Amino acid sequence: MSLNLPAGIASIIQLFSRLFSTRVWKQAEVLMIGAILTTRKRTVSSILEVMGIAHEKNFQNYHRVLSRAVWSNLEASRILLMILLSIFVPSGPIIMGIDDTIERRKGKKIKAKGIYRDPVRSSHSQFVKVSGLRWLAVMLLVEIPWAQRVWALPFFTVLAPSERYNQQLKHRHKTLTDWF
Asked: What InterPro entries does the entry give (predicted)?
């Protein structure tokens, strides 16, 4: 698939090319651009649909970028942070935020799930539990002039497995504060 992108966008997308082999980069580039363009859930199928290649013969190659290709999500996060800093915080203090989110998931194949306090439904007098995956996100907090508010721009997300899951694997459990 040939992508004709404006030079400014192409130069930013190209910064991520060093994370992938030449063969995998073609699919990774399509996935990155499709993830930016899609208004639906950012699944591979939605991305391929918005890119106009949902019925491509070798669609599974795009799925393999995420499931089999070797690349560093930590390095990708570092590149993204550097881009965000250069655009939104060229000078001055850097303010970051950390948030944890529970992704409500069910099923036998979801291994790292745990039972957590639901911060939305719980109150001081009522404790509500929810089952799912806990994700920790690190965000750059920047004031967007035209929006007249501070936006949280996530650049790194990590799965924080439950204590029970870590015990099953005989891994040391990390609390939320241990992650950072």
From this structure: IS701-like_DDE_dom
